[in-house]
Design a protein that fits this description.
The complex is a heterodimer of chains A (107) and B (514).
Chain A lengths: L9 E5 L2 E5 L3 H4 L11 E3 L4 E6 L6 E2 L4 E7 L2 E6 L4 E6 L6 E2 L4 E5 L1
Antiparallel strand pairs in A: 1-2, 3-10, 4-6, 4-9, 5-8, 6-7, 8-10
Chain B lengths: L2 H16 L4 H9 L5 H8 L6 E3 L22 E8 L2 E8 L10 H17 L3 E5 L10 H17 L5 E5 L2 E3 L4 H5 L2 E5 L4 E3 L3 H8 L5 H5 L1 H8 L4 E3 L2 H14 L36 H8 L6 E3 L7 E8 L2 E8 L10 H16 L4 E7 L6 H5 L2 H14 L4 E10 H6 L9 E4 L4 E3 L3 H8 L1 H6 L3 H15 L4 H5 L5 E2 L5 H11 L18
Parallel strand pairs in B: 3-4, 4-5, 5-7, 6-8, 7-9, 12-13, 13-14, 14-15, 14-16, 15-17
Antiparallel strand pairs in B: 1-2, 2-3, 10-11, 11-12
The chains are: A mainly beta (107), B alpha/beta (514).
Chain lengths: 107, 514
């Protein structure tokens, strides 16, 4: 951390006090919080889409399998969290996806 | 054979094995900008003090054509030596021999020197430069790692353990350094990771260089795995030698005392601190104004810089400093800084090093990321570490001590032996603005000129509570002191607590919020 006395000082509020201070890279790069959307089915682990069992517009019951996400040599069933309709499918067979990627939108 | 011939034969054998992987491998090592294992040991220990063991050890692998291969010393050098006269045990993996890969006998050599260090109660230094497990030796290689980890854990808190990463250190191999007290890394040379860039790319499709994934800077700045960062191996060895002067040989001893020296700092200590409590300063300047020879040896200076930790001397005796750093993130406690401070406090406590806490902190870092990252359980580590520590514990409140931060930073309530506060210290449940907004909400809301009323009430609160005298009146603070008295009072505190005898209830061990 460079320690030039005034370089990089910014206002930084803790409770109702505002301090002059420097920020760390980690603080500046932190991920801003977003409330989860219950209609979005995200990948909870990075992996590969093996099979997709449903089509857009299809009605699916709670607990039924939507697709298989293979990760760490395990075939993980991704199931419907509640009875509803598949609005759109954002992945297709063979896709390699990171964690927290939107896979299926439901309604 | 005559005796002379025997001696010549020994010399020839030694010469051969001491070459490690041979000239070509040594050239390759040099081309990577790295010293050889032997050069490293000789550069680190006192001249002519190194004595090697197990030079003639050979591997026992028989599969995959290994029976026809000779691996000198099985890729690791072990021995004893001294650093500034302090005895140490050392091992250095030799990358020129089969990439420093760890097989059964390689591991046996390491565990042998670890056992020796623990029995002799002297520090252990491990130089890591290894491609990882020797695949041809299969589960024997894994067994070797496990036996090393087990010994690291047994020795933890008994003898100082230092790990020096001077090459790749990947997969399971990283866990031995992670179990040790101090990890040293060197720019462009050190690499530490559990899964390498190749695996990450094949599994996740994420492309990253080895340096960006687990280079020296990453571990010194982002992960906090490393404690000391340097630009060259030579500089790294200087850091190790310096560290050895600050710490005792084992947990039954005190660190060696040096001749007392006054600080080089010649100004007024109060001039370092701006009068406006919202303006930052570098708390390390305050430490340098206090310690002998103004020599402060900082640890993990690049990671979680909102708290400063490190060693200095007072009247020649080693002390550990824990100080909030207003220059970075206003000196808040967050997950990383709590982790950093707590581990250091436990280190000092294990090795009989008094702890000096310099406090100037506004509280904990607010934010969803912090809460979800577990700032509760990380923050609890600081409370645990301070409460558990039985070494002399001294706190000086420089400027702000608000809320939970006041309690956490070695307060009287966690067992501080001496509590000093500078006269401008604000010891309160929160900053005056916040407190006035809550206590005088009605007055402020009902006032015609709300801002004027708020300012008035903030002043009123400041006068009444944002000072050290309320805490002093309860005996929570022992003395309100002039900043210029700080060094003298710290010397005194350390002197009178030389025979401190404090005990905790007998237990197998506590359950700290790891």
């Amino acid at each position: 951390m460079s320690t030039k006395k005034t370089e990089g000082l910014v206002d930084f509020a803790i409770l109702s006090m505002k301090y002059k201070t420097k920020l760390t890279k980690k603080f500046e790069n932190r991920v801003k919080y977003e409330a989860p959307n219950p209609d979005h089915i995200l990948s909870y682990i990075p992996g590969t889409i093996c099979e997709v069992f449903v089509k857009e517009g299809q009605k699916v019951k709670e607990g039924e399998s939507l697709l298989i996400l293979e990760a760490m040599k395990m075939r993980n069933q991704i199931t419907m969290p509640r009875t509803g309709k598949v609005k759109s499918i954002k992945v297709s067979q063979g896709d390699r996806i990171p964690k927290n990627q939107l896979m299926v939108e439901i309604e | 054979m005559s005796l002379k011939k025997h001696i010549l034969d020994l010399r020839k054998r030694k010469e051969q094995v001491e070459k490690g992987g041979g000239d070509r491998a040594i050239e390759k090592q040099a081309a990577m900008g790295k010293m050889t294992a032997r050069e490293r040991i000789l550069a680190l220990v006192d001249k002519d003090s190194f004595t090697e063991y197990d030079l003639f050890v050979e591997h026992t692998a028989r599969d995959f054509g290994m029976d026809k291969k000779q691996l000198h010393g099985d890729g690791v050098i072990i021995g004893t030596g001294t650093i500034y006269g302090a005895p140490i045990c050392i091992f250095a993996q030799d990358f020129t021999v089969a990439g420093g890969s760890l097989g059964l006998m390689h591991a046996r050599k390491i565990t042998k020197i670890m056992d020796h260090a623990l029995k002799m109660r002297v520090p252990l230094i491990g130089i890591n430069d290894s491609g990882g497990a020797r695949i041809q030796e299969g589960v024997n290689s894994l067994a070797g790692y496990g036996e090393i980890f087990y010994r690291n854990t047994l020795a933890s808190g008994v003898i100082p353990q230092l790990s020096v990463i001077l090459g790749p250190c990947a997969g399971g191999a990283v866990y031995s350094p992670a179990l040790t007290d101090f990890v040293f890394v060197v720019e462009n040379i050190s690499k530490m990771f559990i899964t390498g860039p190749g695996v990450i790319e094949s599994v996740l499709g994420e492309k990253i260089s080895m340096e960006d994934l687990g280079g020296a800077r990453v571990h010194a700045e982002i992960t906090g795995n490393a404690h000391f960062f340097s630009d060259s191996e030579t500089e790294c060895f200087e850091q190790i030698k310096k560290l050895i002067t600050f710490i005792p040989w084992n947990n039954g001893k005190k660190a060696k005392a040096f001749p007392p020296k006054p600080p080089k700092f010649k100004g007024k200590i109060e001039d370092i601190i701006p009068s406006d409590p919202k303006t930052p300063y570098d708390v390390r300047d305050v430490i340098r104004a206090i310690v002998d020879d103004s020599d402060f040896f900082e640890i993990q200076d690049l990671w979680a810089a909102n708290i400063v930790i490190g060693f200095g001397r007072l009247n020649g005796e080693t002390v550990g400093f824990v100080a909030n750093q207003p220059l970075v993130l206003a000196g808040v406690l967050d997950c990383d800084s709590s982790d950093k401070a707590a581990r250091f406090i436990r280190y000092c406590d294990a090795f009989n090093i008094p702890i000096i806490t310099l406090e100037d902190m506004p509280g904990y870092l607010p934010g969803v990321d912090q809460e979800h990252a577990g700032v509760i359980r990380h923050g609890a580590k600081v409370l645990y570490a301070y409460s558990e520590a039985t070494v002399p514990k001294v706190t000086v409140i420089l400027r702000k001590a608000y809320g939970g931060g006041y309690i956490a930073m070695n307060s009287r309530h966690l067992g501080a032996d001496f509590m000093f506060a500078w006269p401008m210290a604000e010891i309160a449940v929160m900053g005056p603005e916040g407190a006035a907004n809550i206590i005088f909400k009605k007055d402020i809301d009902e006032a015609e000129d709300k801002d004027a009323m708020r300012a008035l009430k903030v002043e009123e609160y400041k006068e009444k509570f944002a000072n050290p005298y309320v805490a002093a009146a309860k005996g929570y603070i022992d003395s309100v002191i002039e900043p210029s008295e700080t060094r003298e009072l710290l010397l005194h505190a350390i002197e009178v607590s030389a025979n401190k005898d404090d005990h905790r209830p007998a237990k197998k061990h506590g359950i700290p919020p790891f």
